[in-house]
Amino acid sequence: MRAMVYRGPYRVRVEEKDMPTIEHPNDAIVRVTCAAICGSDLHLYHGLMPDTRVGFTFGHEFTGIVEEVGSSVQSLRRGDRVMMPFNISCGACFFCARQLYSSCHNTNANATAAGGMFGYSHTAGGYDGGQAEFVRVPFADVNHAIIPEWMSEEDAVLLTDACPTGYQAAEMGDIKEGDVVVVFGAGPVGLFAAKSAWLMGAGRVIVVDHLDWRLQMARTFAHAETLNFTQVNDVVQHFKDVTDNLGADVCIEAVGAEADGAGFQHLATVKMKLQGGAPTALNWAIDSVRKAGIVSVVGGFGPLFSAVKFGDAMNKGLTIRTAQCSVKRHWPRLFQHVKNGVLKPSAIVTHRLALDEIAEGYHMMSSKLDNVVKPLVFPRAA
Fold it and tell me: Pseudo-torsion of CA 132, 138, 140, 145, nearest 10°?
């Protein structure tokens, strides 16, 4: 089969790989029909995540059609149109029983910090991802949803990570009616977080970024106010000024390891890899939220040290909530929002690529070319 493969930092290409096979009776093989390039894939592409091995296939957002099922699989049949959450869960452990699927205790033998994930290095279990013609899905009865007939494939693929992650980011903010919510980052997750903040009762939503086309989408898709951080002298002071010197009630960090805005931090992290990620946006969130406020963190960071202003957080009495999204937990409500027309996830899609164009897609995302927000990839396996 053809698949995207990693050949080292900033180097990916499409190659022939062995077809995945049923390795356990609970497995399924899925023919991928649509995948996506995620902003967090760039952390792998840039060499910021440890144990990203040459020959590995990325891609944690994908949909497809069931080709083959293991002998123990009960709820899937060949030909079913399915979507998979990006996190791989067993469905039976301590965490899965509490719907904390991203913390599954049985799907990642290589770390205790997270459960397994598709296409996210061997620190997340080493499972090849869906930027390929075919993919193996472990615990297939647990790790899928049948795509409803009324749901488009492009909406479905965005419900495998970006949309529920943004929704959970807002949920973790414990937003009360009338709250001022500031979202750092106008990528897909930040856009969905801003949109979701309204659904949870926010009275004011402000999105921060430095790319004008992403800020424009924040205004049109998420109906948010926007701030280009390059156009103010002090981001933190700006939010004090517009909130009667209190600060926002909730700040959401949806940027992660490669945040712009502080030259030294970017150099130390992205270029020199001395830290697990540039904490610029996270520190802005800590300083911009009011005392006793909530900071919700869904941006991806590496496991190394990062210079986070934890003393400020402690002195302000902040609640900091973090998590990889437990995608399946949010599907029932998000499906209803999509069906009722409240939410159209595919509205943020800007590019559609063939699998053979995936190297160009990564370059476009990495270099922020052609007003890219969210590219989809179509393998079109025979």
Answer: -50
pLDDT at position 380 over 90: no
Q: How many CB atoms lie within 10 A of CB 294?
A: 23
Amino acid at 49: M
Cβ–Cβ under 8 Å, residues 59 and 376:
no
Tell me the sheet residues that pair with 320: 295
pLDDT the model gives residue 4: 98
196: left (phi over 0), alpha (psi -120 to 50) or beta: alpha
Nearest to 285 by CA among 267, 264, 305, 259: 259
Let me know: does 235 contact 253? Beta carbons within 8 Å. no
Backbone angles phi, psi at 62, to 5 degrees: -160, 155
Q: What is the domain class of 2-161+326-378 according to CATH?
A: alpha beta
* Per-residue pLDDT tens digits for 31-52: 999 999 999 999 899 988 888 9
DSSP character for 200? Answer: T
Structure-block tokens of residue 39: 């902003």
Please name the residue that has the structure tokens 């499906």. 335
Structurally, what CATH architecture does the domain formed by 162-322 represent? 3-Layer(aba) Sandwich (3.40)
Token output for 28: 């399924």
158-194, pLDDT tens digit by residue? 999 999 999 999 999 999 999 999 999 999 999 999 9
Q: Distances in Å between the alpha carbon of 248 and those of 166, 169, 255, 339, 378? A: 18, 15, 18, 32, 40
Q: Which tokens in the block code for residue 285?
A: 């969130």
Cβ atoms of 99 and 328 closer than 8 Å: yes
Domain edges within the chain: 2-161+326-378, 162-322
Asked whether the predicted pLDDT for residue 262 surpasses 60, the reply is: no
